Structure to design on (470 residues):
């Protein structure tokens, strides 16, 4: 009996995820895809987004014309490009046996960090008067090896940097955050370590997403072991409540976003001409995109996965809009007074655009079905997501782990904003400053960069669409 149950459940996982469960694919020699196959991905990617009062077309226009240019510029600023992370945590669920297939997931520290970034200061509070300015750092201006991670700071600098982190409330957290004082945590320059294909393969690479979907996503109530491989995810989602559907769509949207970036920044060649290149040749791999999203190759699930990306975009957009008073009150301190002022102005400009969107995700109807039942469901929701954040420590490729942890932390921060109750009423600036609720610097950087990944994914979809028409 249990053998049959196991087989049915495995069929459910395979049918639900198809190629979606494979984070990284193999290197292919050709970048030429089937135009008709790519068009199939997009002809079904239109119209209303489930559980939202918005359309794909509306988001495309809003993001590509208004959000992405502002956000992309902002994320190049010092405050948002340095993120503290522990890449040495042991996987709590299994022994890591993964291997990177190519050298671009290797780690090499950048020897220096601009002095202003090492300064101390509060991200929430009065304007900082420090006139410290970062010095030029020639060896960090460019990514000499695109696979390297910038991880070096002195212990003294780390101690000063820790003052940036505010104490967040544990009961509101949806993520297992790295400890602020953890000596294994290091600052990395996100611009020097872009999210892209790394050749990460092996059992561990497949096990990460399989564990997320199989053990940490909500299952159908009526028959959790049913074989949905022939009817698709929509059928089993119909019998789930809004909260559980939201959870699944958010995770699927995150997965889709990651897959888009891997296909958009794919290693096309290790050579420039006849010579081996130290940096490689990177670009859009249409075949890889089709493999992950073509409806004929994914049992009809590819376009739904892309729509889940738009769903997640709306969810995180709503979190930013809900936290506008708080986010506008931060000083975004780096020690460079002029640049910090520019960042604050840029943040306010971006948030004004975020507020202007007429059809945000509506979280008000979630966790509202009776006090005890809602509390139990919210705790289950939080527990599942905290487990997912822990699974990110099982990713065997350092660069993949970096971006997995950052994007999961960004989504967890968005959920914290939406469901902590701290922003259910519009707060004045004075009220914001008096509240005990705070986000750490790492959460704020992850929130903006995580949303930036979603914004970039939607832009990349337009690029794939245009390339399919050539």
């Amino acid at each position: 009996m249990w053998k049959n149950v196991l087989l049915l459940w495995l069929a459910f996982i395979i049918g639900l995820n198809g190629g979606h469960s494979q984070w990284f694919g193999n290197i292919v020699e050709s970048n030429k895809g089937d135009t008709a196959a790519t068009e199939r991905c997009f002809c079904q990617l239109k119209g209303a987004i489930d559980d939202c009062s918005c359309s794909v077309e509306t988001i495309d226009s809003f993001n590509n014309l208004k959000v992405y240019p502002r956000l992309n510029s902002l994320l190049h600023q010092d405050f948002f490009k340095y993120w503290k992370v522990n890449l040495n945590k042991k996987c709590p669920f299994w022994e890591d046996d993964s291997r990177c297939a190519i050298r671009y997931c290797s780690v090499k520290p950048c020897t220096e960090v601009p002095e202003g970034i090492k300064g101390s200061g509060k991200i929430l509070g009065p304007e900082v008067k420090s006139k410290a300015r970062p010095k030029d750092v020639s060896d960090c201006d460019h990514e000499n090896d695109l696979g390297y991670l910038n991880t070096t700071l002195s212990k003294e600098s780390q101690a000063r940097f820790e003052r940036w982190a505010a104490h967040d409330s544990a009961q509101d957290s949806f993520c297992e955050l790295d400890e602020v004082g953890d000596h294994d945590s290091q600052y990395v320059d996100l611009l020097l370590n872009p999210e892209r294909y790394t050749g990460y393969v092996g059992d561990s690479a497949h096990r990460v997403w399989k564990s997320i979907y199989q053990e940490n996503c909500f299952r159908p109530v009526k028959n959790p072991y049913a074989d949905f491989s022939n009817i698709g995810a929509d059928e089993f989602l119909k019998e789930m409540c809004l909260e559980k559907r939201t959870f699944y769509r958010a995770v699927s949207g995150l997965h889709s976003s990651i897959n888009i970036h891997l296909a958009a920044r794919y290693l096309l060649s290790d050579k420039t001409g006849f010579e081996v290149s130290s940096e490689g040749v990177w670009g859009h791999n249409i075949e890889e995109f089709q493999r992950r999203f073509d409806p004929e190759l994914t049992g009809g699930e590819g376009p739904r996965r892309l729509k889940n990306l738009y769903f997640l975009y709306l969810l995180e957009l709503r979190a930013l809009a809900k936290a506008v008073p708080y986010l506008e009150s931060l000083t975004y301190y780096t020690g460079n007074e002029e640049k910090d002022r520019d960042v604050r102005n840029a943040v306010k400009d971006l948030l004004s655009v975020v507020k202007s969107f007429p059809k945000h995700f509506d979280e008000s109807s979630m966790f509202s079905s009776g006090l005890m039942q809602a509390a139990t469901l919210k705790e289950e929701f939080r527990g599942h997501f905290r487990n997912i954040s822990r699974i990110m420590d099982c990713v065997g490729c350092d660069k993949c782990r970096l971006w997995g942890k950052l994007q999961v932390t960004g989504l967890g921060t968005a959920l914290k904003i939406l469901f902590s109750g701290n922003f259910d009423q519009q707060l004045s600036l004075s009220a914001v400053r008096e509240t005990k609720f705070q986000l750490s610097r790492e959460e704020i950087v992850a929130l903006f960069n995580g949303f930036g990944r979603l914004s970039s994914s939607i832009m990349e979809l337009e690029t794939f669409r245009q390339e399919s028409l050539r």
User: Anything to note?
Assistant: The beta strands are 82-86, 99-100, 185-189, 200-201, 266-272, 275-283. Residues 26-468 form one domain. The longest helix spans residues 441-468.
